[in-house]
Amino acid sequence: RLQLRSDLDKMNKEMTAVQECYLEVCREKDDLESTLRKTIEKEQQAQEKIKQELIQQLEKEWQSKLDQTIKALKKKTSDCCSQTDQVTAMDVIAKKEMAIMLEEQTRKIRQDLEQEKETAISGGLKKLEVELELKYCENIAKQVETAVQNARHRWLEEMPDLAEYKAHVRAEQKKWEEQQDITVARRISFAISEAKEKWKNELENMKKSGIPGKELEEKIHSLQRELELKNEEVPVVVRAELAKARSEWNKEKQEEIHKIQEQNEQDYRQFLDDHRNKINEVLAAAKEDFVKQKTELLLQKETELQTCLDQSRREWAAQEARRIQLEIYQYEEDILTVLEFLLKDTQKEHVSDSENKQLLELVSTCSSKWVSAQYFEKLKACIQKAFRDLLSLAIENANSEWEKRNMA
């Protein structure tokens, strides 16, 4: 019975540990999802910050390039003016017209540079944002899938050691977050450096190729139209693609998470069924063992009781035999004593009071329960009758002998 109770307590403790482990895994899964959401928010904030810094840096670079171009044009105009100080009034008019044309060209170049800068910034940032978002989503999907699979395997393997399992999950989560931060920072840095290098190359190409005014103006109008179209189309397309990709990714991840939850629940139910079967087997074995031990104990106790009864019966029989033998011996002694007393007083015809007292004292001294006053009276009467019969027979024999002698 104690062994059965111990086994039941052990099984109850194991069931409690399993339930606590399952609840702990669910809590760890919720914590992991919360951490992923927080990580996504942090990455979005980091992307916004990087985008703003990139915009500011590009604006500074384009402003510096624009200032350098204006200074170069002013220096070129100043050199032309210094060489034509001695010309005529027609030359002065031509110089004024040239200054106006130079100013107009400078304004157009500035507008062109501003538009190209806006186009480059908008297109580069959107392209960078799309690439980073897609790469980040792909990386998150792979890492979530890997983390969920690893968590499931660890849950199945390390379920009994709850404290060690918690520490292991926290270490893996911290390691995953650190690797994620390093990967995102590396990719963002690479994209920024690539964008910088690209825009530097384009700027150098623009400086090297001197584009005429009309072609530049046509290019400006073309770029403006292209920029307007892209400003209208690209954000919508990008947002739609991002929304679609995010929706598909969320749907896939939800399905995977649902499958994993179902698999975990199925494993947990299987685990409970196995433990329930094990408990039933242990209970059946314990019950069988208990019945067997009970039967053996009953047989042992019956044997011991029968042995005790036999021994008690033998002892009682021996005691009764000794007691009966003692009573027989005492009865014989009492009978002999009484007979001796009665034989002494048999010949007396009258019994005095003193003799009656002696008889009573003799009866009181007898230890046998069969000896009593009535018994003595009957025994005395029988002895007296026997003596009288003997006496009568002896007298008759004596008379007969005497008669025979007289006749002879």
UniProtKB/TrEMBL annotation:
Residues 29-61, 213-270 form a coiled coil. It comes from Mustela putorius furo (European domestic ferret). GO terms for biological process: centriole replication. InterPro entries: CEP152/SHC-Transforming. Keywords: Coiled coil. This is Centrosomal protein 152kDa. GO terms for cellular component: centrosome. The lineage of its organism: Eukaryota, Metazoa, Chordata, Craniata, Vertebrata.
